[in-house]
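--- STAGE predict ---
source: upstream dedup step, 1 unique chain passed
mode: sequence only
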Amino acid sequence: MDTEDHKALREAVAALGKRHGRGGDPAQLWSEAGKLGYLGVNLPEAYGGGGGGISELSIVLEELGAAGCPLLMLVVSPAICGTVIARFGTDAQKQQWLPALADGSRLMAFGITEPDAGSNSHRITTTARKDGNDWIVKGRKVFISGVDIADATLVVGRTEDARTGRLKPCLFIVPRDTPGFTRRPIDMELHAAEKQFELTLDDVRLPADALVGDEDAGLLQLFAGLNPERIMTAAFAIGMGRYALAKAVEYARDRQVWDTPIGAHQAIAHPLAQAHIDLELARLMMQKAARLYDTGDDMGAGEAANMAKYAAGEACVKAVDQAVHTLGGNGLTREFGLASLITAARVARIAPVSREMILNYVSHQTLGLPKSY
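--- STAGE serialize ---
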Protein backbone atom coordinates (compact mmCIF):
# COMPACT_ATOMS: atom_id res chain seq x y z
CA MET A 1 0.00 0.00 0.00
CA ASP A 2 1.09 3.60 -0.62
CA THR A 3 2.48 5.58 2.28
CA GLU A 4 1.28 9.16 2.78
CA ASP A 5 4.42 10.38 1.00
CA HIS A 6 3.76 8.02 -1.87
CA LYS A 7 0.15 9.20 -2.14
CA ALA A 8 1.31 12.80 -2.28
CA LEU A 9 3.89 11.97 -4.96
CA ARG A 10 1.31 10.01 -6.96
CA GLU A 11 -1.18 12.92 -6.87
CA ALA A 12 1.44 15.50 -7.82
CA VAL A 13 2.77 13.49 -10.77
CA ALA A 14 -0.77 12.68 -11.91
CA ALA A 15 -1.51 16.40 -11.99
CA LEU A 16 1.62 17.02 -14.07
CA GLY A 17 0.64 14.23 -16.45
CA LYS A 18 -2.88 15.59 -16.79
CA ARG A 19 -1.51 19.02 -17.77
CA HIS A 20 0.53 17.48 -20.58
CA GLY A 21 -1.70 14.56 -21.64
CA ARG A 22 -1.38 12.28 -24.63
CA GLY A 23 0.25 13.80 -27.69
CA GLY A 24 2.24 16.46 -25.84
CA ASP A 25 5.93 17.28 -26.22
CA PRO A 26 7.97 14.61 -24.36
CA ALA A 27 11.03 16.88 -24.18
CA GLN A 28 9.03 19.61 -22.48
CA LEU A 29 7.49 17.11 -20.05
CA TRP A 30 10.95 15.67 -19.30
CA SER A 31 12.32 19.13 -18.57
CA GLU A 32 9.43 20.07 -16.29
CA ALA A 33 9.54 16.73 -14.47
CA GLY A 34 13.25 17.26 -13.90
CA LYS A 35 12.78 20.74 -12.48
CA LEU A 36 10.12 19.41 -10.12
CA GLY A 37 12.51 16.70 -8.90
CA TYR A 38 10.57 13.72 -10.23
CA LEU A 39 13.26 12.30 -12.54
CA GLY A 40 15.74 11.76 -9.75
CA VAL A 41 13.54 10.65 -6.86
CA ASN A 42 15.54 7.41 -6.67
CA LEU A 43 18.99 9.02 -6.66
CA PRO A 44 21.01 10.05 -3.56
CA GLU A 45 20.26 13.44 -2.03
CA ALA A 46 23.99 14.16 -1.89
CA TYR A 47 24.00 14.23 -5.69
CA GLY A 48 20.81 16.20 -6.27
CA GLY A 49 18.34 13.35 -6.10
CA GLY A 50 15.33 12.77 -3.91
CA GLY A 51 16.93 10.13 -1.73
CA GLY A 52 14.19 7.60 -2.42
CA GLY A 53 14.30 4.41 -4.44
CA ILE A 54 12.76 2.51 -7.31
CA SER A 55 9.48 2.50 -5.33
CA GLU A 56 9.21 6.24 -5.83
CA LEU A 57 10.47 6.29 -9.43
CA SER A 58 7.99 3.57 -10.44
CA ILE A 59 5.17 5.77 -9.10
CA VAL A 60 6.36 8.62 -11.34
CA LEU A 61 6.37 6.45 -14.46
CA GLU A 62 3.09 4.72 -13.65
CA GLU A 63 1.21 7.98 -13.11
CA LEU A 64 2.62 9.61 -16.24
CA GLY A 65 1.56 6.49 -18.14
CA ALA A 66 -1.91 6.60 -16.65
CA ALA A 67 -2.17 10.19 -17.89
CA GLY A 68 -1.22 9.06 -21.40
CA CYS A 69 2.30 10.48 -21.44
CA PRO A 70 4.79 7.84 -20.20
CA LEU A 71 8.48 8.68 -20.51
CA LEU A 72 10.34 5.58 -21.67
CA MET A 73 13.72 7.10 -20.82
CA LEU A 74 12.75 7.01 -17.14
CA VAL A 75 13.35 3.27 -17.39
CA VAL A 76 16.81 3.86 -18.80
CA SER A 77 18.42 7.08 -17.60
CA PRO A 78 17.65 7.35 -13.85
CA ALA A 79 16.50 3.76 -13.20
CA ILE A 80 19.22 1.70 -14.89
CA CYS A 81 22.13 4.08 -15.47
CA GLY A 82 21.55 6.28 -12.42
CA THR A 83 21.20 3.26 -10.14
CA VAL A 84 24.36 1.57 -11.43
CA ILE A 85 26.45 4.75 -11.13
CA ALA A 86 25.04 5.53 -7.67
CA ARG A 87 25.89 2.03 -6.43
CA PHE A 88 29.18 1.35 -8.17
CA GLY A 89 30.51 4.54 -9.75
CA THR A 90 33.53 6.48 -8.57
CA ASP A 91 33.05 9.79 -6.76
CA ALA A 92 34.05 11.58 -9.94
CA GLN A 93 31.47 9.64 -12.01
CA LYS A 94 28.77 10.37 -9.45
CA GLN A 95 29.59 14.08 -9.42
CA GLN A 96 29.69 14.22 -13.20
CA TRP A 97 26.49 12.33 -13.92
CA LEU A 98 24.02 11.98 -11.05
CA PRO A 99 23.02 15.65 -10.55
CA ALA A 100 22.48 16.01 -14.31
CA LEU A 101 20.50 12.76 -14.56
CA ALA A 102 18.41 13.87 -11.58
CA ASP A 103 17.43 17.27 -13.00
CA GLY A 104 17.02 15.92 -16.52
CA SER A 105 19.65 18.16 -18.09
CA ARG A 106 21.57 15.10 -19.28
CA LEU A 107 20.40 11.67 -20.37
CA MET A 108 22.12 8.32 -20.56
CA ALA A 109 21.11 5.38 -22.75
CA PHE A 110 21.80 1.72 -21.94
CA GLY A 111 23.35 -0.69 -24.41
CA ILE A 112 23.11 -4.41 -23.67
CA THR A 113 21.13 -6.20 -26.42
CA GLU A 114 23.11 -7.58 -29.36
CA PRO A 115 22.03 -8.90 -32.77
CA ASP A 116 23.25 -12.45 -32.10
CA ALA A 117 22.76 -12.70 -28.34
CA GLY A 118 19.05 -11.97 -27.91
CA SER A 119 17.92 -12.85 -24.41
CA ASN A 120 21.16 -14.71 -23.68
CA SER A 121 23.35 -12.01 -22.14
CA HIS A 122 26.04 -14.64 -21.57
CA ARG A 123 26.63 -14.58 -25.34
CA ILE A 124 27.46 -10.89 -25.50
CA THR A 125 30.40 -10.45 -27.87
CA THR A 126 31.18 -6.76 -27.29
CA THR A 127 34.63 -6.99 -25.78
CA ALA A 128 36.97 -4.60 -24.01
CA ARG A 129 40.73 -5.00 -23.78
CA LYS A 130 43.35 -2.97 -21.98
CA ASP A 131 45.77 -0.80 -23.96
CA GLY A 132 48.01 0.92 -21.46
CA ASN A 133 45.68 2.85 -19.18
CA ASP A 134 42.95 2.96 -21.83
CA TRP A 135 40.26 0.50 -22.84
CA ILE A 136 39.57 -0.52 -26.45
CA VAL A 137 35.94 -1.58 -26.96
CA LYS A 138 34.63 -3.37 -30.04
CA GLY A 139 31.15 -4.71 -30.79
CA ARG A 140 27.57 -4.08 -31.86
CA LYS A 141 24.33 -3.36 -30.04
CA VAL A 142 20.74 -3.32 -31.28
CA PHE A 143 17.36 -1.94 -30.14
CA ILE A 144 18.97 0.72 -27.95
CA SER A 145 16.49 3.45 -27.01
CA GLY A 146 17.09 7.18 -27.16
CA VAL A 147 20.74 7.18 -28.22
CA ASP A 148 20.18 10.31 -30.32
CA ILE A 149 19.02 12.34 -27.31
CA ALA A 150 21.39 10.77 -24.78
CA ASP A 151 24.67 12.41 -23.83
CA ALA A 152 26.28 9.00 -23.32
CA THR A 153 25.45 5.30 -23.40
CA LEU A 154 26.23 2.87 -20.61
CA VAL A 155 27.54 -0.04 -22.67
CA VAL A 156 27.72 -3.61 -21.41
CA GLY A 157 30.84 -5.35 -22.63
CA ARG A 158 33.03 -8.22 -21.52
CA THR A 159 36.64 -8.34 -20.39
CA GLU A 160 38.89 -11.37 -20.26
CA ASP A 161 39.79 -12.67 -16.84
CA ALA A 162 43.58 -12.94 -16.83
CA ARG A 163 43.46 -15.92 -14.46
CA THR A 164 40.83 -18.08 -16.14
CA GLY A 165 40.63 -16.68 -19.67
CA ARG A 166 36.85 -16.44 -19.33
CA LEU A 167 34.90 -13.37 -20.36
CA LYS A 168 33.08 -11.45 -17.63
CA PRO A 169 30.63 -8.54 -17.93
CA CYS A 170 31.66 -4.94 -17.36
CA LEU A 171 30.10 -1.53 -17.97
CA PHE A 172 31.53 1.53 -19.72
CA ILE A 173 30.27 5.09 -20.10
CA VAL A 174 30.63 5.98 -23.79
CA PRO A 175 29.99 9.68 -24.63
CA ARG A 176 27.88 10.27 -27.73
CA ASP A 177 30.64 11.92 -29.80
CA THR A 178 33.38 9.35 -29.04
CA PRO A 179 35.34 8.46 -32.22
CA GLY A 180 34.38 5.03 -33.56
CA PHE A 181 31.00 5.08 -31.78
CA THR A 182 28.28 5.27 -34.44
CA ARG A 183 24.53 4.76 -34.53
CA ARG A 184 22.00 3.76 -37.16
CA PRO A 185 18.26 4.28 -36.65
CA ILE A 186 16.10 1.16 -36.89
CA ASP A 187 12.94 1.60 -38.96
CA MET A 188 10.26 0.57 -36.47
CA GLU A 189 6.59 -0.03 -37.27
CA LEU A 190 5.89 1.14 -33.72
CA HIS A 191 5.78 4.93 -33.64
CA ALA A 192 7.16 6.24 -30.35
CA ALA A 193 8.83 9.43 -29.20
CA GLU A 194 11.99 7.49 -28.37
CA LYS A 195 13.76 6.07 -31.42
CA GLN A 196 15.58 2.73 -31.55
CA PHE A 197 19.15 2.36 -32.79
CA GLU A 198 21.80 -0.12 -33.80
CA LEU A 199 25.19 0.84 -32.39
CA THR A 200 28.66 0.05 -33.67
CA LEU A 201 31.74 0.35 -31.51
CA ASP A 202 34.71 0.13 -33.85
CA ASP A 203 37.79 -0.07 -31.62
CA VAL A 204 36.47 2.74 -29.46
CA ARG A 205 39.19 4.08 -27.18
CA LEU A 206 38.03 5.01 -23.70
CA PRO A 207 39.98 6.37 -20.73
CA ALA A 208 40.38 4.24 -17.60
CA ASP A 209 37.70 6.25 -15.79
CA ALA A 210 35.06 5.21 -18.35
CA LEU A 211 34.79 1.87 -16.54
CA VAL A 212 31.99 1.90 -13.97
CA GLY A 213 32.84 0.10 -10.76
CA ASP A 214 35.18 -2.84 -10.37
CA GLU A 215 35.98 -4.90 -13.46
CA ASP A 216 35.83 -7.96 -11.18
CA ALA A 217 32.29 -7.26 -9.89
CA GLY A 218 30.72 -8.51 -13.11
CA LEU A 219 27.18 -9.80 -12.81
CA LEU A 220 26.48 -7.97 -9.54
CA GLN A 221 26.82 -4.60 -11.25
CA LEU A 222 24.87 -5.70 -14.30
CA PHE A 223 21.88 -7.00 -12.34
CA ALA A 224 21.91 -3.88 -10.17
CA GLY A 225 20.56 -2.20 -13.32
CA LEU A 226 18.47 -5.02 -14.77
CA ASN A 227 16.19 -5.49 -11.76
CA PRO A 228 15.12 -1.80 -11.75
CA GLU A 229 14.63 -2.10 -15.51
CA ARG A 230 12.09 -4.89 -15.03
CA ILE A 231 10.31 -3.04 -12.22
CA MET A 232 10.09 0.14 -14.29
CA THR A 233 8.88 -1.79 -17.34
CA ALA A 234 6.08 -3.09 -15.13
CA ALA A 235 5.26 0.49 -14.11
CA PHE A 236 5.24 1.51 -17.78
CA ALA A 237 2.82 -1.32 -18.62
CA ILE A 238 0.52 -0.70 -15.64
CA GLY A 239 0.28 2.99 -16.44
CA MET A 240 -0.56 2.26 -20.07
CA GLY A 241 -3.16 -0.30 -19.04
CA ARG A 242 -4.75 2.13 -16.60
CA TYR A 243 -4.93 4.81 -19.30
CA ALA A 244 -6.66 2.48 -21.76
CA LEU A 245 -9.03 1.15 -19.10
CA ALA A 246 -10.03 4.66 -18.01
CA LYS A 247 -10.88 5.57 -21.62
CA ALA A 248 -13.00 2.42 -21.97
CA VAL A 249 -14.84 2.97 -18.68
CA GLU A 250 -15.65 6.57 -19.61
CA TYR A 251 -16.97 5.43 -22.99
CA ALA A 252 -18.99 2.56 -21.50
CA ARG A 253 -20.67 4.93 -19.06
CA ASP A 254 -21.69 7.42 -21.76
CA ARG A 255 -22.34 5.33 -24.86
CA GLN A 256 -26.01 4.33 -25.07
CA VAL A 257 -27.58 1.64 -27.20
CA TRP A 258 -31.34 0.90 -26.83
CA ASP A 259 -31.55 3.61 -24.15
CA THR A 260 -29.04 1.85 -21.85
CA PRO A 261 -25.34 2.67 -21.33
CA ILE A 262 -23.31 -0.20 -22.72
CA GLY A 263 -21.44 -0.39 -19.40
CA ALA A 264 -24.60 -1.73 -17.78
CA HIS A 265 -24.24 -4.94 -19.78
CA GLN A 266 -22.15 -7.59 -18.07
CA ALA A 267 -20.54 -8.60 -21.36
CA ILE A 268 -18.94 -5.14 -21.34
CA ALA A 269 -18.62 -4.56 -17.59
CA HIS A 270 -17.10 -7.86 -16.49
CA PRO A 271 -14.07 -7.88 -18.84
CA LEU A 272 -13.29 -4.30 -17.78
CA ALA A 273 -13.57 -5.30 -14.13
CA GLN A 274 -11.25 -8.22 -14.79
CA ALA A 275 -8.75 -5.92 -16.48
CA HIS A 276 -8.81 -3.66 -13.42
CA ILE A 277 -8.23 -6.60 -11.08
CA ASP A 278 -5.29 -7.86 -13.16
CA LEU A 279 -3.67 -4.41 -13.22
CA GLU A 280 -4.06 -4.03 -9.46
CA LEU A 281 -2.54 -7.46 -8.84
CA ALA A 282 0.39 -6.62 -11.11
CA ARG A 283 0.89 -3.36 -9.25
CA LEU A 284 1.10 -5.20 -5.92
CA MET A 285 3.86 -7.45 -7.25
CA MET A 286 5.64 -4.42 -8.69
CA GLN A 287 5.49 -2.71 -5.30
CA LYS A 288 6.84 -5.84 -3.63
CA ALA A 289 9.73 -6.02 -6.10
CA ALA A 290 10.56 -2.34 -5.64
CA ARG A 291 10.49 -2.65 -1.85
CA LEU A 292 12.77 -5.69 -1.92
CA TYR A 293 15.20 -3.91 -4.21
CA ASP A 294 15.20 -0.71 -2.17
CA THR A 295 15.95 -2.64 1.02
CA GLY A 296 18.96 -4.34 -0.57
CA ASP A 297 17.54 -7.81 -1.21
CA ASP A 298 18.90 -8.28 -4.73
CA MET A 299 18.07 -11.99 -4.93
CA GLY A 300 14.50 -11.56 -3.71
CA ALA A 301 14.06 -8.54 -5.96
CA GLY A 302 15.23 -10.52 -8.98
CA GLU A 303 12.43 -13.05 -8.64
CA ALA A 304 9.77 -10.46 -7.81
CA ALA A 305 10.88 -8.06 -10.56
CA ASN A 306 10.58 -10.77 -13.19
CA MET A 307 7.14 -11.78 -11.90
CA ALA A 308 5.99 -8.15 -11.80
CA LYS A 309 7.16 -7.51 -15.34
CA TYR A 310 5.39 -10.68 -16.56
CA ALA A 311 2.13 -9.89 -14.76
CA ALA A 312 2.11 -6.26 -15.84
CA GLY A 313 2.81 -7.09 -19.48
CA GLU A 314 -0.04 -9.58 -19.60
CA ALA A 315 -2.43 -7.23 -17.77
CA CYS A 316 -1.54 -4.33 -20.03
CA VAL A 317 -2.11 -6.24 -23.28
CA LYS A 318 -5.47 -7.52 -22.05
CA ALA A 319 -6.57 -4.09 -20.79
CA VAL A 320 -5.70 -2.39 -24.06
CA ASP A 321 -7.37 -5.12 -26.11
CA GLN A 322 -10.55 -4.91 -24.03
CA ALA A 323 -10.55 -1.12 -24.17
CA VAL A 324 -10.35 -1.13 -27.97
CA HIS A 325 -13.05 -3.82 -28.12
CA THR A 326 -15.31 -1.77 -25.84
CA LEU A 327 -15.14 1.21 -28.18
CA GLY A 328 -15.69 -0.94 -31.26
CA GLY A 329 -14.89 0.99 -34.43
CA ASN A 330 -14.14 4.09 -32.39
CA GLY A 331 -11.34 2.15 -30.72
CA LEU A 332 -9.45 2.19 -34.00
CA THR A 333 -9.81 5.91 -34.70
CA ARG A 334 -7.13 8.52 -34.12
CA GLU A 335 -9.67 10.61 -32.19
CA PHE A 336 -9.78 8.19 -29.25
CA GLY A 337 -6.06 7.38 -29.31
CA LEU A 338 -6.25 3.72 -28.35
CA ALA A 339 -5.35 1.92 -31.56
CA SER A 340 -1.64 2.81 -31.35
CA LEU A 341 -1.53 1.21 -27.90
CA ILE A 342 -2.26 -2.21 -29.43
CA THR A 343 1.30 -2.32 -30.74
CA ALA A 344 2.84 -0.40 -27.85
CA ALA A 345 1.32 -2.72 -25.23
CA ARG A 346 3.09 -5.73 -26.70
CA VAL A 347 6.45 -4.16 -25.97
CA ALA A 348 5.91 -4.97 -22.29
CA ARG A 349 5.62 -8.65 -23.22
CA ILE A 350 8.81 -8.60 -25.28
CA ALA A 351 11.20 -6.15 -23.64
CA PRO A 352 13.54 -6.11 -21.83
CA VAL A 353 13.08 -9.87 -21.59
CA SER A 354 10.39 -12.05 -23.13
CA ARG A 355 7.64 -13.65 -21.07
CA GLU A 356 8.98 -17.06 -22.05
CA MET A 357 12.39 -16.28 -20.56
CA ILE A 358 10.68 -15.14 -17.36
CA LEU A 359 8.81 -18.44 -17.22
CA ASN A 360 12.17 -20.16 -17.68
CA TYR A 361 13.60 -18.11 -14.80
CA VAL A 362 10.74 -18.97 -12.47
CA SER A 363 10.72 -22.66 -13.40
CA HIS A 364 14.49 -22.98 -12.85
CA GLN A 365 15.28 -20.51 -10.08
CA THR A 366 12.06 -20.64 -8.07
CA LEU A 367 10.70 -24.12 -8.67
CA GLY A 368 14.03 -25.87 -9.10
CA LEU A 369 13.10 -27.61 -12.34
CA PRO A 370 15.89 -28.79 -14.67
CA LYS A 371 17.00 -26.76 -17.66
CA SER A 372 16.60 -27.81 -21.28
CA TYR A 373 19.39 -25.47 -22.42
